[in-house]
């Protein structure tokens, strides 16, 4: 089997690409500045150029669409054309499209408990674009697999709440910020678990509907304190307590820093519990891949360069 991964240098794209290779797939990765390693066949190209994507997709059975503009720059102008190029490439070679989904598609009207077919009425710019991406996929008539999960964290993930809001990558953990309102639960997704879930579903592709949409349970932090506590334990500082995330800073910086503007738009997801049902996923797989929280957090902090050598987690 052969796959094309768009966004192989990113968190979820990289995890899925490496796992496919480990499962025996030949994996091509399209990038403007190709790298080496991970067993991938790197191809020079641009996801914004349709001919590049169609050419790279020749002979593949799966296209992983995990490409995003870095730092949310030019999001509205770039995201939908890239999706259209992927659809065109999949139509040309008869491939299935795999898309990592997000909770941004949902507005406050369907919270806190979200089932797989909940109405998608987003209240943010990014959410509106994500809904349009999925609409185009469904209308394409192509085989599509969407796997939706909570906020990503993992050893090679940078553009997410864990790395941009809770801790500072590349530095020892001396402080933890908690974006959640007191007592509000939140859903997290460990990237290696998300990748494993996606690949297991791909391996059952023949049994999936044409437009397949699944959600993961991931790690459910019932009151918003469990993730910060796991970070403190992994850093060997169980006494470290999280402070409130400085939301005021996102307001001040939003006009100048795209990341802060996007973070502020997603604040509603931290003011009330957000929990997606994985019932449909369990019906197909029987169980959901799940790395224990302490293990997942430690690997994440190691990958982000936040643990100095010799740090012994407090749970050892």
UniProtKB/TrEMBL annotation:
Record field: transmembrane: none
Cellular component GO terms held in the UniProt record: cytoplasm
Pfam families noted in UniProt: NAD_binding_10 (PF13460)
Residues covered by the NAD(P)-binding domain: 7-152
InterPro entries: NAD(P)-bd_dom, NAD(P)-bd_dom_sf, NAD(P)-dependent_oxidoreduct
An annotated Gene Ontology molecular function: aldehyde dehydrogenase (NAD+) activity
Protein name: NAD(P)H-binding protein
Organism the protein comes from: Duganella radicis
């Amino acid at each position: 089997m052969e796959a094309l991964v768009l966004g192989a240098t990113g968190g979820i794209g990289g995890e899925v690409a490496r796992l496919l290779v480990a499962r025996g797939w030949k994996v091509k990765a399209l990038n403007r500045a190709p790298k080496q390693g991970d067993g991938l066949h790197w191809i020079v190209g641009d996801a914004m150029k349709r001919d590049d994507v169609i050419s790279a997709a020749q002979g593949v059975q799966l296209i992983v669409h995990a490409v995003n503009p870095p730092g949310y720059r030019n999001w509205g102008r770039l995201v939908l054309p890239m999706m259209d190029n992927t659809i065109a490439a999949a139509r040309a070679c008869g491939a299935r499209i795999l898309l990592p989904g997000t909770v941004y598609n949902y507005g406050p009207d369907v919270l806190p408990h979200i089932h797989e077919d909940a109405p998608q009425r987003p209240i943010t710019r990014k959410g509106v674009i994500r809904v349009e991406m999925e609409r185009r996929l469904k209308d394409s008539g192509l085989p599509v697999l969407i796997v939706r999960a909570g906020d990503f964290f993992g050893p090679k993930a940078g553009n997410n709440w864990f790395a941009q809001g809770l801790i500072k990558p590349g530095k020892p953990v001396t402080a933890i910020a908690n974006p959640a309102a007191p007592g509000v639960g939140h859903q997290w997704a460990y990237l290696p678990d998300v990748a494993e879930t996606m690949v297991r579903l791909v391996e059952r592709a023949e049994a999936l509907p044409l437009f397949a949409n699944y959600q993961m349970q991931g790690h459910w932090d019932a009151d918003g304190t469990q993730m910060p506590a796991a970070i403190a334990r992994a850093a060997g500082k169980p006494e470290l307590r999280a402070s409130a995330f400085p939301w005021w800073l996102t307001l001040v910086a939003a006009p100048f820093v795209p990341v802060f503007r996007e973070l502020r738009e997603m604040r509603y997801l931290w003011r009330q519990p957000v929990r997606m049902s994985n019932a449909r996923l369990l019906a197909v797989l029987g169980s959901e891949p799940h790395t224990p929280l302490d293990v997942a957090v430690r690997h994440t902090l190691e990958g982000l360069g936040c643990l100095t050598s010799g740090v012994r987690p407090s749970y050892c």
